[in-house]
Every structure is written in C-alpha cells, then in structure tokens.
Design brief:
Order of helices and strands: HHHHHHHHHHHHHHHHH
Shape: globular
Pfam families: MatE (PF01554)
Largest sheet: none
Keywords: Membrane, Transmembrane, Transmembrane helix
Strand content: under 5%
Number of helices: 17
Number of strands: 0
Subcellular location: Membrane
Main location: membrane
Radius of gyration: 21 Å
Protein name: MATE family efflux transporter
Length: 445
Amino acid sequence: MDKGATQISARSFNVTNRSVLAIAVPMTLAYLTTPLLGIVDTAVVGQFGDAALLGGLAAGALVFDVVFTTFNFLRSGTTGLVAQAFGRGDQLEEQAVLWRAVLIAVVAGVVLAALAPLFAVAGQWFMGAEPRVSAAMSVYIRIRLLAAPFSLINYAILGYVLGRGEGGLGLMLQAVLNGINIALCFLLGLELGWGVAGVAWATVTGEFLAMLLGLAIVLSRFRKLERPSRRRILDLPAYRRMLSLNRDIMIRSFSLLAAFALFTRQGAQFGTVTLAANAVLMNFFLVAGYFLDGFATAAEQLAGRAIGAQAATPFRQAVRLTLIWGFGLAAVASLILLTAGANLVALVTTSADVRAAADAYLPWAAFTALSGVLAFQMDGVFIGATWSRDMRNMMLLSFLAFSAALMTLAPAFGNSGLWAALHVFLLVRGLSLLAVLRLRVRTAF
C-alpha cells in the first residue's frame, strides 16, 4: 500500500483479492508466531515432564491474557481510528491517534506492573488449583507483568501500522518480538533450567526490545512529515471518543477472556492431567485462530478505510472477500489439525497421560477453526468500522449462551461437553454479528 497516498487516492479505491492478500498474508505469518511462541513455552516447560508445571504455565498465561486483553483496544481501537483517518487522507490525525494510544499505554502499563503481586494472588484464588500449580502460576505472573508498559506500547504501534495497511512492517515487528522471545525461551527456560521463570523473563526481554525497534521506526517516519500539535494530541473530545470506543472493546475483550477463563477453570476441576491436555489443545485452537486473524486484520483496515472514505462498494467487497478467504483457510486448518495433531501433541509434551488425554479431545480442538471463522471475520469488520457498541452487545449475548452451555453440557458430558460449549460460544458470536451487520450497512452509507 502506497504510504504517500493522496487524499483523492485514499478515497477512490477498489478492494480486490490482491489488496486483501497484501495485508492478510504477511499478518497471517506474523500472527502465527504468537501461538508458535505459546507452543514453544508449553514445549519447554513440558520437557520437565511435570503436569503441575504445565498447568501452572497455562493458568498463569490465562491470568496474564485476562489482564492484557482488557487493554487490547490499544491495538484494535487504534487500527480502526487510523484506518478511517487514512481513508479521509488525514495524516495528522493518524499520528495523533498513535500518540494518544501510547500515552494511555504508558500509564496503564506502569499501573499493571506495580499490581503484579495482587494479580498473582487473585489468579491463585480464582483457579483454585493444587498448590504446586498455584506456585508455578504465581512465579509466571509476577515476572511477566513487568513487561506491561512495553507490551501495551507495542499494541499501539502495531495498531498504527495495521491501520495504514502496512502488513509487511507488521510482520517484521511481530517476527522480531516473537523471534527474540522464542530464542530466549529455549535459552533461559531449557538450557539454563529456569523453567517457568525463564519463559516469563524471555517475554519481558522480547517485549522491551521490540518496543525500542517500533518506536525507532515510527519516529524516523514522523520526522519527514508535518507533526500534529501537542494541543491536537491532548484534545479532550478526541480522548473521550477513543475512551468510549475503548470501553466497548474492553468489555468485549474481557467477556472473551472470561469465557476462556471459565473454560480453563472447568478443565482444572476435571483434574491436573485434563487441565494440561486442554492447555496443549488450546494452543492448537490459537494457532487456527491466528491463522485466520490475518484476514480479519485485512477486514479491519479495508472496512475502516471504506468507512472513512464513505465508500459503500469497497466496504461490501472487503466483507465478501475476507469471508471467502477465511472459510477456505479454516477448512485447511481443521484438516491439518485432524491429520497431524497427534504428532504435534507428542512434540509438545513428554507426559504419557497428558498425550493420551489430548489425543482423545483433539477433534474438538480441530473444528474450532470452522466454528470460529465467522466470529473472527465479523470482529475485524466491526473493529475497522468502529461499531464497538454492537460488537460489545453481541459478545455479551454470546457469553450468556456459552455460560448456559457450560452449565448444562460440562456436567453431562465432562470435558467433551466443555469443548462443545466453546463451539456454541464461537458460533453465536459469528452469527449474531452477521445479523447486525446487515442492519448496519443499510444506514452506514
């Protein structure tokens, strides 16, 4: 995508397979490094052959994700606002949106890092796992939350990059972040024998170095452009709009993580082996999800750009093409997991009990790609269009459906019922957003 797009070219554009793939392919590769990191973390700890350590890592990662996904608006909200400014041809507002997000990230990150011990205690209370699992979880949370300021700034930078449709740059930033993290994970966690603590310190270091690189890139770019005034960056109405948007995305994100928290907690009630097996399989679910998120990101940028340019045809093209590509890739992802999943489980953990349990429930994880693809794509469209209230409301509806399914299916069918409830959650999310989209399009243009 031409970085120097004029206002006229920004407003006059067509969405084609090529424009979708230009964003989706590099970002698919970038997002795949994130669950790959999760698999490496699990594999490193799994080499110790202790299910309690695996369970502690899974529980600690869950608490971390609950906290940080609450602030995921710093990525997704920034993407939508920058994409719309890009569609209007307003470069000053693109920069201002980034700096507003960075300021929020610094303040929130410092607070989160300071509250790490409290989050560790709260996580132990919520999970109610056995003492050795709780101890490993506490170590992971207390160290990893030290990366909070760096992680949130990275969210803001990535949101700016994706809002402009620069998938290649987004790929480079994510590859550096997760590449450093993976290398240090092996070094600290396995070679030096630090275990869970080594995995956490690897994340802290990777986030810090990636933040330095990202800031260097955007500052170098901004030196060549007219800069927004300090008054514009600190404009209170703009902050109120961002915070209103972010409030809805925060509620949506928290509801999403609450569903995963309940899933993990229920798995813990079935025993440490089941908890560890579900942790392995959830990594595969995340692989499938991130495999599709590249096209959801393309939907964010292209739909947001179309909204900013008030262009109805490109908007419809973006929705249609990203859905076609998404369903095709979802089918491929499910097939791969069905055929190769057992071998992947064997690579991740040396525990025979965990392997046997994970193999038994593998089909449930494999089909999450197909049941979740519509939800992922609709999220991208609604984030780009900044229709955050609808996204929030449909997520709350989906969470209620998941809770009802969890209470009825898990007691009746055990861990299979737990996975079935997750599928209900994904399907309700996608279908409810699709129904709202049809109403929204009639009034948006």
